[in-house]
């Protein structure tokens, strides 16, 4: 049984980690950590957990944390992991970081997009980008995993197979993304105030979202192509779920051998051994509700002959495949467990 520690246990990602890990047969939750609730019970904040056998919340002491656990999940706000990860690495514990601190390889890019001090280059060099469907072998050998962001997970899984072909104009990619409110975290703010958000729908961080460089970096790492995308996120008045709709222009200037049948086969082949990616039959389009509470990413493909554009839709639960579920998928790979072990396979429906 592997000992699990969770730093940031009172946030949404921390609570989702606990919900799923309580069903995992090969681990037990050794320690929970919080910077603001030391010595208190998690059930005080989340009464639905009062029947769970969980340890009391502890303060964050990195040296002690490294000694107590086999793996530590950092479900912390941006800027925290960068500070404490070096101590955890020195202590020899495996690390899975759910914040954005270790995702970008460039400290300068992190500071530009996140407006916070970055982790050191030494730490960033050790962090493996944890998109299992495309980086599984490296995750298995890692000691530090940078868990992908929710938008990048849905976007990269939907784009990467196509970007390995020569069918498209790489500079034509537009990603229109929509997320539920839980992606903003548990902290109260005017932007997620009920009366501001309800009966409304809006774009935010237009041209400025911090997941943009992560998506572009992921494309470069997995396809060796340096591509700039147009990414616009929107906030939808629902709790969970992400839907991305990507538009990519076919290259009509040359005979690239594109067919609709070939597009469908490309994706089915790319993900034939990926247990959490489901490529929908042609003409079937996914809804966020169909992956609610699961670690699945559902992908659908369409070709618009009139405009010459490929349209790709993908849906995930931002709290599971976009955060805690993918982190546990990475943990399974780190410890040599079955990749799907302990992860929910059926959506909450309706």
Q: What is the compact description of this entry?
A:
The chain has 350 residues and is α/β, with parallel strands linked by helices. The chain has helices spanning 12-21, 42-45, 62-68, 81-91, 107-114, 121-126, 132-140, 150-163, 194-197, 211-223, 260-270, 320-335, and strands at residues 2-7, 27-33, 57-58, 71-74, 94-97, 127-129, 144-146, 174-179, 202-203, 230-235, 242-249, 277-279, 297-304, 309-316.
Strand tally is: 14
Look at the structure and name the CATH superfamily of the largest domain.
Dihydrodipicolinate Reductase, domain 2
Bin the helical content: 25-40%
- Total count of helical runs of at least 4 residues: 12
CATH topology of the largest domain: Dihydrodipicolinate Reductase, domain 2
Outline type: globular
Number of domains: 2
Q: Strand-and-helix sequence, N→C?
A: EHEHEHEHEHHEHEHEHEHEEHEEEH
Active site: 150
InterPro entries: AGPR, AGPR_AS, AGPR_dimerisation_dom, AGPR_type-1, NAD(P)-bd_dom_sf, Semialdehyde_DH_NAD-bd
Function: Catalyzes the NADPH-dependent reduction of N-acetyl-5-glutamyl phosphate to yield N-acetyl-L-glutamate 5-semialdehyde.
Domain Semialdehyde dehydrogenase NAD-binding: 3-142
Polypeptide structure, described:
- It catalyses: N-acetyl-L-glutamate 5-semialdehyde + phosphate + NADP(+) = N-acetyl-L-glutamyl 5-phosphate + NADPH + H(+).
- InterPro entries: AGPR, AGPR_AS, AGPR_dimerisation_dom, AGPR_type-1, NAD(P)-bd_dom_sf, Semialdehyde_DH_NAD-bd.
- Belongs to the NAGSA dehydrogenase family. Type 1 subfamily.
- This protein is α/β, with parallel strands linked by helices and 350 residues long.
- It has two domains: 2-147 and 323-335, NAD(P)-binding Rossmann-like Domain (Rossmann fold), CATH 3.40.50; 151-316, Dihydrodipicolinate Reductase, domain 2, CATH 3.30.360.
- Helices cover 32% and strands 20% of the residues.
- It has twelve helices and 14 strands.
- Strands 3-2-1-4-5-7-6 form a seven-stranded parallel sheet, with helices on both faces. Strands 9-10-8-11-14-13-12 form a seven-stranded mixed sheet.
- A hairpin with a 4-residue loop joins strand 13 and strand 14.
- Helix 8 (150-163) packs parallel to helix 10 (211-223).
- The longest helix has 16 residues, at 320-335.
- The protein starts with a strand and ends in a 15-residue tail after the last helix.
């Amino acid at each position: 049984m592997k000992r699990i520690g969770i730093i940031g246990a009172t946030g949404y990602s921390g609570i989702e980690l606990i919900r799923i890990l309580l069903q995992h047969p090969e681990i037990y939750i050794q320690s929970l950590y919080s910077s603001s609730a030391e010595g208190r019970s998690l059930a005080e904040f989340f009464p639905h957990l009062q029947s769970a056998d969980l340890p009391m919340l502890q303060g964050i002491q990195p040296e002690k944390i490294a000694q107590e656990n086999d793996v530590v999940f950092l479900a912390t706000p941006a800027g925290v992991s960068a500070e404490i990860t070096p101590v955890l690495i020195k202590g020899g514990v495996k690390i899975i970081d759910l914040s954005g601190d270790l995702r970008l390889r460039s400290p300068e890019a992190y500071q530009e997009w996140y407006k916070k001090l970055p982790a050191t280059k030494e730490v960033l060099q050790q962090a493996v980008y944890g998109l299992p469907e495309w980086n599984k072998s490296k995750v298995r050998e890692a000691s530090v995993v940078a868990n992908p962001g929710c938008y990048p997970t849905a976007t990269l899984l939907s784009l990467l197979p196509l970007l390995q072909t020569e069918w498209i104009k790489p500079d034509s990619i537009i990603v229109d993304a929509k997320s539920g409110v839980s992606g903003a975290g548990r902290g109260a703010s005017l932007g997620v105030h009920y009366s501001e958000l309800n009966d409304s729908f809006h774009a935010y961080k237009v041209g400025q979202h911090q997941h943009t460089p992560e998506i572009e970096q992921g494309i470069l790492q997995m396809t060796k192509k340096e591509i700039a995308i147009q990414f616009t996120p929107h906030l939808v008045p629902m709790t969970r779920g992400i839907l991305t709709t990507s538009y990519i222009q076919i290259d009509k200037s040359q005979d690239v051998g594109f067919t609709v049948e070939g597009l469908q086969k490309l994706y089915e082949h790319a993900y034939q051994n990926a247990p959490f990616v489901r490529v929908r039959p042609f003409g079937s389009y996914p809804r966020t509700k169909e992956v609610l509470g699961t670690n699945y990413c559902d992908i659908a493909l369409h070709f618009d002959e009139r405009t010459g554009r490929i349209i790709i839709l993908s849906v995930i639960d931002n709290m599971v495949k976009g955060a805690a579920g993918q982190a546990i998928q990475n943990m399974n790979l780190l410890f040599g467990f079955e990749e799907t072990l302990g992860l929910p396979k059926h959506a909450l429906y309706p």
